[in-house]
Amino acid sequence: MIKTHQRTPSRSLESVEVKSKFGAEFRRFSLDRSKPGKFEEFYGLLQHVHRIPNIDVLVGYADIHGDLLPINNDDNYLKAVKTANPLLRVFLQRKEDADYSAFGTDTLTRKKNVLSNVLRPDNRKKPPIAISLPRDFRPVSSIIDVDVLPETHRRVRLYKHGSDKPLGFYIRDGSSVRVTPHGLEKVPGIFISRLVQGGLAESTGLLAVNDEVLEVNGIEVSGKSLDQVTDMMIANSHNLIITVKPANQRNNVRISRTSGSSGQSTDSSTSHATFMASPHVMQNFHSEEVDSDEETDMVIEGSDEPQHIPVAPSASASIVSLTKSDNDHGLTPNGSVASSEGSMHTLAADTKMDPVEKEDVIRRSMEEDGTVITL
Amino acid sequence: MKRFRRHGHELHRERIKQDLFQFNKTVEHGFPHQPSALAFSSSLQLMAIGSRSGAFKIYGAPEVEIMGLHEENAAVTQIHFLPEQGQLVTLLDDNSLHLWKLKKSPDGLSILKEESRFDLRGQPGAPPSVTTITVVLPQSPGDVLFLGTEGGCVFVVEQPSFREQEEKAISQEAVLQKVPDDYRNRRSLGSVEALQENPRNPHQIVIGYSRGLIVLWDLQANQATHHFLGDLQLESVTWQRDGRQIISSHSGGSYCQWPVSNDDRLPQPLENKVPYGPFPCKAIPKILWLTTKQRTPFVIFKGGMPRASYGDRHCISVLHGSKQTAFDFTSRVIDFFVVDEAESESDCNEPRALLVLAEEELVAIDLKTPSWPVIQSPYLIPLHCSAITCSHHVSNIPIKLWERIIAAGNKQTTHYSIKPWPIDGGYSTAPEPPQRDLLLTGHEDGTVRFWDASGVCLKPLYKLSTVSVFVTDADHNDNLNQSGEDEWPPLRKVGSFDPYSDDPRLGIQKIHLCKYSSHLTVAGTAGQVLVLELNDEAADQEVACTLVDILQDQDTFKWKGHERLNPREEPVHFPAGFQPFVLVQCQPPAVVTSLALHSEWKLVTFGTSHGFGLYDYQQKRTVVVRCTLHPSDQLALEGPLSRVKSIKKSLRHSFRRIRGSRVSGRKRAVPGNNAAKVQEANARMDREALNEMELAPVQRRIEARSADDSFTGFVRSLYFADSFIKDGSYHGPSLWAGTNGGTIFAYTIHIPPVERRMEDPVTADQAKEIQLMHRAPVVGIFILDGRGILLPEPLEAAHDLSKSPDMHGNHMLLVISEEQFKIFTLPKVSTKTKLKITALEGSRVRKVSAASFSSSRVEDYSENGLLVLTNLGDIQVISLPVLRTQVRYECIRKEDVSGIASCVFTKSGQGFYLISPSEFERFSVSSKWVVEPRCIIDIEEGVGTRTLQQRVVQDGAVTKANTRDAVHSHVPGLSRSEGDGRKAVEVMEHALLNDERVLLEIQSTLESESAVTDRLSLGHLDRNSKNVAGVQPQMQRMINGD
Questions:
Q1: Which residues are in coiled coils (chain A) (predicted)?
Q2: Which listed residue, A308, B136, B256, B942, has the most CB atoms within 10 A of its CB?
Q3: CB < 8 Å to B768, chain A
């Protein structure tokens, strides 16, 4: 489903050495690098080798930067196996006393601490950013398709999911110079004319004023009027993918082999300063994905008190519906997680959120993720 | 192998599509916008009307219409039929002459083709006025044109080669040779104002100069024979039919009769009359003198009214003996002519009818009937006699209802003359329309007009007025207009064009007619909803009024818009026809934005920007009201007028500027004239301002729609259906409402059994609420049955006119938003299929309607689909229930906002939209049902070699010969071979929109506005100017194409 553009160094090693730790026990075994199998199988294997068949555990591994990252689906399992160099270090925790905060995405400098946190659960120190379970992950804005686009272009996905931020930009008509068979020609084009302070577009740092818009969700805008492009962007606003030719060509993405395998979180509040210099977040964009994470409409059945229903669904109802939506639209969360591997962002970013806010988030996610409520 | 088969399948599908779909713009209904010239050929019995857009159209007998379109975007100022040749010469505003010919298209229909163009050139260095053509006279043998100019010279041009015969030109010097010295020295002659041929002697013409001199010129001797030394500013000259007298009209409102005899070469006027004297009068720009057997001539002239008190009237006066009437028109008179029944040898004209072309309508007056009544015209109907506010089309009207509507209409037209339409040239070969179609137009003055839209001619059938239900100010004004018998001048109002609305709140906004029950509902600007039924007898009745509070006691809202209309308390007299029996008044009285009627359930539903209501018109009781307002939507409360006003104002502003610059462009530059300089400077400043506007970037905000955008509560669509709402086993009545914010409300309706229908209340409960996540306005809701076919209209199945729907569950809900089409399952609502429009194309759905497309090749094969019009003016057909775009045609220019807003579709795949305030363009997307003029005008052969005698014999004789004739632009056979039907059709609309400057100005004004409001979305100037330029080559292709 998902192709990572970064080619792993093609080692001739056929097997991966796995060192798995549960509590104080270590187990060592090996996996076939070319056929690592499914996560479920791996999980079974781990339970088997540790002899803990009935204990639910969280699986984590240390990536090449020393970050402790979770393994809980086929994709991050594959990633873990692929990047194991040469040893794959796996850490297991009981689910009951799991320390989610241990998973971190920080750099090598915190590596020791993170590991020591895991190794010595009694010595807990909360890192500022916590990552929750992957079903709560959602994609965020990022640069995608670096491997297929010319270096002068940039494809940016503005992900509005769950965020209160407005998209926050304006477009205008303009003209640009193109090389054509008849020489240089001035052609009309669409440009970004303004970024709203604090808006999604501005905070990602991926778009700038005077960037020329070339495509909207894979459709070329040449020959379309400003109003048409406006309408297209608004219609795609839930998952807007804009291909631009940046006005400033000095910050273009260059494919470098050494870029991090795990990638860094696009925490928008901190990243935009560094982003222009070295954007790390890259994804591949496949047009068929556009629909997979499509929003769904909300339906309310029946009406005892129609005025209140859309505004305040009871908390229990929404939880029921959340699980239900997982069943109904099983593909949706998987698809979106898969497509955004390497740039995940937790929805429940702050575990200390007060209950009202939390409910608010849940409700919003319900609206956005397409929930069927039965009252 | 598989791929190959699939390819074959696609080919097959393409072939089927060709049999089903084909796009044609076929005919314009209504009155040409801004007519500028009129001509009539008595021998062909054809009339030609030219317009400011450079288009002209020939009209003959009903359904005989042929259009010609100049490549130049200049007003047609004169049209002249060349005697008996089926040829016309047109003079445009840019001083160019064009020769047109009526020809036969390959399928035998008559068409108009431009043969050649001619520009009159003077001596090098001569001022342009020397060659500015003021009058054109085709000499009756038809091979020479006389061109009078502003410089006072008459040029002679050979036909059809347009070769100038310089030796025959009549210069001022030649004319002045025999004029007495004292007259000659007084003044120059001025421009040529009149050129007329002696009706008895084609070798003698009369030349009238603006300073008053009239001369008779002998063409054979090439010299002036008679001089009439007038000293009044001359406007026009006409011959008496026997050639013994000429009549001149003057700028002071007078006319003179001059005797013509061989004895007197310097005659004095017989009589000099100022018909509306003695006070100063306006000019008489045209006069006709028509003799009768009774010896009393008809004198018909334009203008001449007393300057001070009636100078602003648009009048045509008819004098016949002691009888005198000034026909008073509501718009400027362009020109007029008289149809006579003269025998060629006779000295009498015997006028039959007077046809007057005013700026907004064509009026025919029967001169044979003593009261001079108006003859109802079969075409060129002023659709816009009050501005059109909405339209509604009903296909396939049952014969019974049809006859009753016609009967009601006939009672309204008793004041018309019983004489047939006086123009009857050519004949139509268009087949009889297969069914009876009604087009209903709602107007600003509170009337609904019923038109027969089955054929080429849009015929008025019946007019319904809703005004009498309400108390209006207009009631008191009637007495003022009544004029006594001996009023002077003897004004008589004619024509129906009346752009002034007494009360804008009366305007009709939505119409819904049930053709089976003859129940009609109309809703208006001030939240009024009327339910009417057809009654063949006049009746006095009271209209029950029910107030419906849409806001539902949400007292945080305050309506700032207009007041509601006050209904009359006492019983009102209603003439035979549709008579109202229920009035529902929405409160606040906002404009009704959506309306539906279910005649079987006796329910009507209506929506405004605040919510919607369901009303039982049997029990006259409100069933349910739902407020759809979002708390943060403040705009919805201001009322529609405040916003509309700003757009209107900006439009008016831009038009005023255009008019100003046009005038300055038209005026011929006079050196040293200060006024001209000022105008030029103004125009330059305008241009600069325009340039600046172009430079200022237009920007658009990109933002996801949110729940608190304005106007989210605006109800866009309402739909009644018998379907499965709550569970899959029981179906029942339901109401569906869609809002601007992408919300859909579904109600189940409980209707008591028939025997208890009057006692038990109808109830409705909300069953569902769907919020489309893309939050785009819901423009259409339909339900498809188990076979994927749209549910029939109410009573349709009961009348055995459609197959009864499949009621075995598996119904599907089709929701059409501006951005996408979506099919949901029922009763559990989950998405089944969808088709995105906006996300992929950037266009938005403006109008949608279900239609059935029949194959033109295979009998009994038809497909159902949705006809869709987008904001880019594209027409698309989308298949059902598999949502797939079948075809796409460019139909309306995207800048033509009012054209797109006015579009209405028929059930058989045709449609109408306004190309000007007064004209509907008819188009067809179906290849089977095409309504287009197919007419033949037969013209005598042997052109060009005729003598005077021949002419006399042939005059008036129209025979059917196999000559070169012509018809309408469009040839179905041709375009069918082109497959996708994208063939450009020559239509007036192109010309209308071809005026680049006008377009740019309108747009630039709108744009500065829309940058703020973001609602009226027009493209950017750069692009538009390119589009405009793009029209020109297309038109050329069209003209050469046939």
A1: none
A2: B256
A3: 299-302
